[in-house]
Write a structure and sequence with these properties.
Elements: E1 8-11, H1 17-28, E2 32-37, H2 41-53, E3 58-62, H3 68-82, E4 87-90, H4 105-129, E5 135-139, H5 143-146, H6 152-171, E6 178-184, H7 190-193, H8 198-205, H9 216-227, E7 238-241
Parallel strand pairs: 1-2, 1-4, 2-3, 4-5, 5-6, 6-7
The protein binds NADP nicotinamide-adenine-dinucleotide phosphate.
C-alpha cells in the first residue's frame, strides 16, 4: 500500500511564541512545516533543525507578511520544496496598546499593515493556491469580545481578521477547504508579557475562571484540532481559546 503524501502547512510568525508552538505541534502531528518569520532567522532555523532531528520535515522561510511580493515568494518556496500547500496558519501579528486619543498614525498603520493586510496577503494567496481539502486557521484575539480600553486599534485589526475568516469560508465553497479562527486570551509570550508589571500580569492571568495564563501549547492544541481530521466539520467559526475569560 502506498502511503498518503505528507500534508504541507505554512505557519506565519513561527520563529517565536504561539507560532513556534503551532509549528512544532503540527510537525509532531505529521505535517511538513514551513516556518515563516520576519526578522528572527536564528530561532526559525533552529526550530526547523529540531523538527528535522526528530524525524519531521521543515524549512524556515523569511517573508514580511505585510509585503504581497514576499508572501507570493514564500508560497513559491513552499511549492518548490514540497509540491504544494494544504494548510495555512495566519499567526504573525503585533500588538501596541494605547488609548485611541493618544495613538500615533504610525502605530495604527503598522498594526493594520501586519495584522490586517498581512492576513489578507496570505489569505489571497491561499485562496488561489491551497490544494483542495485544505485548512486555513487565522489567529484572532479574545480582545474582540473583551473590548478593554487601550485595545482599540489592535481589537479592530482582529475583528477584521474574524470578518475575513467568515467571508472566505463561504468563498471557498466547493473546494473542501475550511477557514476558521482561533482567538486566544492572555498567553505567555513576548507579545503579551512585554511592558507589563508582574502585578498586571497576575491580574490578567486570574481573570479567566481557570485562573492562569494560556501557554503557547494550549493554543497550538486548538489549531491542531482545526488542522487535523477531528476538525473537518468546523467551518467559518471563531474558537475562543482562553480559559473562559469571555
Ligand atoms: P510574539 O511572541 O510577539 O511572536 C510574533 C511572531 O510573529 C514572531 O515569530 C514574529 O517574527 C512574527 N512576525 C511579526 N511581524 C511579522 C511580519 N511582518 N511578518 C512575518 N512574521 C512576523 O506573538 P504571539 O503572542 O506568539 O502572537 C501570535 C499571534 O497570536 C498574533 O497574531 C497575536 O495577535 C495573537 N494573540 C496573542 C495573544 C497573547 O496573549 N500572546 C492573545 C491573543 C492573540 P520575528 O521573530 O521574525 O519578528
Amino acid at each position: 500500500m502506498t502511503q498518503a503524501p505528507c500534508k504541507v502547512a505554512i505557519v506565519t510568525g513561527a520563529s517565536r511564541g504561539i507560532g513556534a508552538a503551532i509549528a512544532a505541534r503540527l510537525a509532531r502531528d505529521g505535517f511538513t512545516v514551513v516556518i515563516n518569520y520576519a526578522g528572527s532567522a536564528a530561532p526559525a532555523e533552529a526550530l526547523a533543525r529540531k523538527i528535522g532531528d526528530q524525524g519531521g520535515r521543515a524549512i524556515a522561510a523569511r517573508a514580511d507578511v505585510s509585503d504581497p511580493q514576499a508572501v507570493r515568494g514564500m508560497f513559491d518556496a513552499a511549492e518548490a520544496a514540497f509540491g504544494g500547500v494544504d494548510v495555512l496558519v495566519n499567526n504573525a501579528g503585533i500588538m501596541t496598546l494605547s488609548p485611541i486619543a493618544d495613538t500615533e498614525d504610525a502605530v495604527f498603520d503598522r498594526q493594520v499593515a501586519i495584522n490586517v493586510k498581512g492576513t489578507f496577503n496570505t489569505l489571497r494567496e491561499a485562496a488561489r493556491r491551497l490544494r483542495d481539502g485544505g485548512r486555513i486557521i487565522n489567529l484572532s484575539s479574545s480582545v474582540v469580545g473583551l473590548l478593554q480600553p487601550g485595545y482599540g486599534v489592535y481589537a479592530a485589526t482582529k475583528a477584521a481578521v474574524e470578518a475575513m475568516t467568515s467571508v472566505l469560508a463561504k468563498e471557498l465553497r466547493g473546494r473542501a477547504i475550511t477557514v476558521n479562527a482561533v482567538a486566544p486570551g492572555p498567553t505567555a509570550t513576548d507579545l503579551f508579557l512585554d511592558g507589563k508589571s508582574p502585578e498586571l500580569v497576575e491580574r490578567l492571568a486570574t481573570m479567566a475562571p481557570l485562573e492562569r495564563l494560556g501557554q503557547p501549547d494550549d493554543i497550538a492544541a486548538s489549531v491542531a484540532f482545526l488542522a487535523g481530521p477531528d476538525g473537518a466539520w468546523i467551518n467559518g467559526q471563531t474558537l475562543r481559546a482562553n480559559g473562559g475569560i469571555i
